[in-house]
Amino acid sequence: MTAVAKKSPRSLAIVAAAGCVHLLMLSVPVLLIRGLPSATGDPRLLLFLFLASFWFGLESVASQNEPLRLTGTSDRPWLELEIGGAILVTFWICVLSVPPANRSDLGMTTAIGAALMVVGATSRWLSIRTLGKFFLNDVAVVPGQPLMTQGIYRVVRHPSELGTLCLVLGAVTLRESMSGLIAFLVLLLPGVLRRTRLEDAVLRCHHPAAFALYVCDVGGLIPRFRRG
């Protein structure tokens, strides 16, 4: 999906609609299994549902443009579906998880998890805004697309994937879900790492000299703090 430089007046409505759809997708399982009193009595669950739905609403704004004609499409067409499925499954596990000793109070773990989710959403949003029309879910290069090394891409090469990891790890931390952490490590992390390797390979193919220098200066998912 691609981002637009100027948002239409429908953007807020699209964000709200997408957020509601995502909220339903996450809420229905917990309502069916744990019941309404259990769900509404857990403030950490309500915070998680709000943050996840708000992020999904913002992401929906990026899909308003028609897809561009691509070159260098990934040989793993199901990778994005794999990552999306892993996110949804991990989120479902998080909403169904009961905090240790049925604790539902807000504390340090909640604050850390919420902060990670906000950082993740911000990282993905900055990635979309920086790339503009060149932001894609496919591992591909748009004809005429330059190698982006500005903005958040001066910090890490894969801010969108870093954002995804922060979002889901934040949800796991907020919910204190050990089963969610296992799902994160087994289902999501491998897919995200495969995507970063594919993106690097595609960019190396289209911008060999510039990308070699870029890799030396900027880390993939972890910022490099250089002296001087």
Key attributes of the depicted protein:
single chain, Four Helix Bundle (Hemerythrin (Met), subunit A), mainly alpha, 228 residues
What does this structure look like?
The chain has helices at residues 11-33, 36-40, 43-61, 79-96, 108-131, 159-175, 178-206, 208-217. It is 64% helix and 0% strand. The protein has 228 residues and is an all-alpha fold. α5 packs antiparallel against α6 (159-175). The longest helix is centred in the last third of the chain and has 29 residues, at 178-206. Residues 1-9 have low confidence and may be disordered. It has one domain (11-217): Four Helix Bundle (Hemerythrin (Met), subunit A). The N and C termini lie far apart (38 Å). It is elongated. The protein contains eight helices and no strands.
The major beta sheet can be summarized as: none
N-to-C SSE string, H for helix and E for strand: HHHHHHHH
Domain tally: 1
CATH architecture: Up-down Bundle
Number of strands: 0
Q: How much beta, percentage-wise?
A: under 5%
* Class per helix and strand makeup: mainly alpha
- What's the overall geometry? elongated
> How many DSSP H or I helices?
8
**Straight-line distance between termini:** 38 Å
What is the CATH C level class, in words? Mainly Alpha
CATH fold name, please? Four Helix Bundle (Hemerythrin (Met), subunit A)
- Low-pLDDT runs of 5+ residues are 1-9
Assembly category: single chain
Mean pLDDT rating? 78
